[in-house]
Specification:
The complex is a heterodimer. By secondary structure, chain A is α+β, with helices and mostly antiparallel strands. Chain A folds into two domains: 123 residues, Beta-grasp domain (Ubiquitin-like (UB roll), Roll), CATH 3.10.20; 119 residues, Alpha-helical ferredoxin (Fumarate Reductase Iron-sulfur Protein, Chain B, domain 2, Orthogonal Bundle). In chain A, 38% of the residues lie in helices and 11% in strands. Chain A is globular and about 85 Å long. By secondary structure, chain B is mostly helical. Chain B is 77% helix and 0% strand. Chain B has five helices and no strands. In chain B, 15% of the residues are buried. Classes of the chains: A alpha+beta, B mainly alpha. Chains A and B meet through helix 10 of A and helix 2 and helix 4 of B. Bound molecules: protoporphyrin IX containing FE, iron/sulfur cluster (SF4) and FE2/S2 (inorganic) cluster (FES). Iron/sulfur cluster (SF4) binds next to helix 5 and helix 7 of chain A.
Chain lengths: 293, 131
């Protein structure tokens, strides 16, 4: 919301050459517009505190570098509601109007970069994909559980990334096509099989929701296992590579840690059937090891 | 990250407001499983009285069954066993990857069915006991 300052007169000056005088006037106009905008926003903030059409946010705050903020606390923000406003929009509004030190990650604002997974009203959600109107007030916003908080809503993602790397999250094969320039074709059916698993945006919501991952730091976690599924089920990687992938997954802290609580599947913002994929890999691992002949 | 705030187990748990069906199912299944293991020992202990003769066994059973607490505990045991079996079957289906989209509904169904069976069993379990 705040990053798109509305009502800028931009297209006016494009096109024909513009005289210096007009440029100056435009500049003035723009400045005035900004001033009015600021004033209006300040008024809105004032009104927001008292008005009905506002949302009450309770936001977790913590900053190890400022002596007065080392003790974690919750700050209240009252944000004027606009139709379609998401949790991320509200946070940005609060940051821009109340406290510029409020820290959180975001980038795409369309559920594709995976940087704003937060703990909202008791469950893991993407800020940019969660409508305020769907939430009960006060909207309680916290950093992802089971991760160290670096500052405010920012958690340390290093451990999550380590687990993702551990499953070798890239295509590898030793069965290359004959011709040097041949493509590595995938059948439609096979593509369909891995389709959902390719959607992961590395947001870590699933990992944060998982009780098992919380208790066992070495557990690969749903996202990493799903990533492994994406490649283990890809027929183009060939048998040898599948074997290698199953060996990684079968380890003590691999698929067998999963206790089918389904919390990952419920929070995944990309609707990936994580538990289903983990269960399928368990069965693959057993089939791989049980040989009666 | 030289400094970062670790919220610890207790705080995490209290923050958890949306406990989902699958999580409850897991906790109940663990709990009922271990209660059943506990009962197994009690069960063996009571049955072992038969080693000291038929009369000893009959006396023990009669003494136990005349107590209201024992009758109530039996109802509890039935509840625990029925839930464990029903949810156990649910888990077997989950392991087979069958009906995963209905995992929450099947958990609630296990709970309700357990409740119904337990309520229906109360007259039998509590019959002829003096308070
Ligand atoms: C028809 C009867 C039963 C069925 C269908 C059944 C099914 C299951 C299943 C599927 C699990 C695995 C849960 C998981 O995936 O983590 C389990 C766990 C367990 N069962 Fe049963 N069970 C039955 C009877 C019993 C009995 C009679 C006992 C006690 C003597 C028992 C004790 C346990 C325990 C202690 C666990 C938990 C183990 C753990 O901590 O992981 N079960 N049961
Ligand atoms: S599997 Fe879903 S919840 Fe987990 S990191 Fe990927 S997108 Fe996020
Ligand atoms: S901001 Fe990119 S996923 Fe929400």
């Amino acid at each position: 919301m705040s990053t798109q300052v509305p009502e800028r007169v931009e297209d006016e000056s494009s096109g024909e050459s513009v005289s210096p005088g007009k440029q100056k006037r435009d500049q003035k106009k723009l400045e005035r517009a900004e001033r009015i905008q600021e004033q209006r926003e300040a008024e809105a903030a004032e009104k927001a505190r008292s008005g009905d059409d506002t949302y009450h946010l309770k936001v977790f705050r913590y900053d190890p570098e400022v002596p007065g903020k080392q003790e974690p606390r919750f700050d209240d923000f009252y944000v004027p509601y606009k139709q379609g406003m998401t949790v991320l929009d509200a946070l940005m509004w609060a940051r821009d109007h109340y406290d510029s030190s409020l820290t959180f990650r975001h980038s795409c604002r369309q559920a594709i970069c995976g940087s704003d997974a937060l703990f909202v009203n008791g469950s893991q959600r993407l800020g940019c994909k969660t409508q305020l109107s769907a939430l009960a007030e006060p909207v309680r916003i916290e950093p992802l559980p089971h991760a160290d908080v670096v500052k405010d809503l920012v958690v340390d993602m290093e451990h999550f990334y380590d687990q993702m790397e551990a499953v070798e999250p890239y295509f590898q094969t030793n069965s290359l096509p004959d011709g040097e320039l041949d493509e590595q074709r995938q059948t439609r059916e096979n593509r369909e099989k891995v389709k959902m698993s390719t959607r992961c945006i590395w947001c870590s919501a699933c990992m944060s929701s998982c009780n098992i991952a919380a208790g066992d730091n070495e557990y690969l976690g749903p996202a990493a296992i799903n990533k492994a599924y994406r490649f283990a089920m890809d027929e183009r990687e060939g048998e040898d590579m599948k074997q290698r992938r199953l060996e990684i997954l079968e380890q003590e802290h691999g698929v067998w840690r999963c206790q089918t609580q389904f919390s990952c599947t419920e929070v995944c913002p990309k609707d990936i059937p994580l538990t289903e994929h983990i269960q399928e890999l368990k069965r693959e691992a057993i089939k791989n090891n049980l040989k009666f002949w | 990250m030289s400094q970062s705030y670790n919220r610890g187990l207790i705080e995490d748990f209290s923050r958890w407001r949306e406990f989902s069906a699958g999580m409850w199912a897991w906790i109940f299944h663990k709990f009922t499983g271990w209660v059943l293991v506990g009962y197994l020992f009690t069960h063996i202990a009571v049955l072992s009285t038969a080693l000291s003769g038929a009369a000893a066994y009959t006396n023990t059973i009669q003494a136990l069954e005349s107590l209201l607490v024992v009758r109530i505990l039996e109802v509890g045991l039935l509840a625990v066993a029925v839930f464990h079996i029903l949810n156990g079957v649910r888990l077997l289906f989950v392991d087979l990857g069958v009906g995963l989209e209905a995992q929450d509904k099947s958990f609630y169904a296990s709970l309700i069915l357990t409740g119904v069976i337990v309520v229906a069993s109360i007259p039998t379990f509590l019959s002829g006991v003096s308070i």
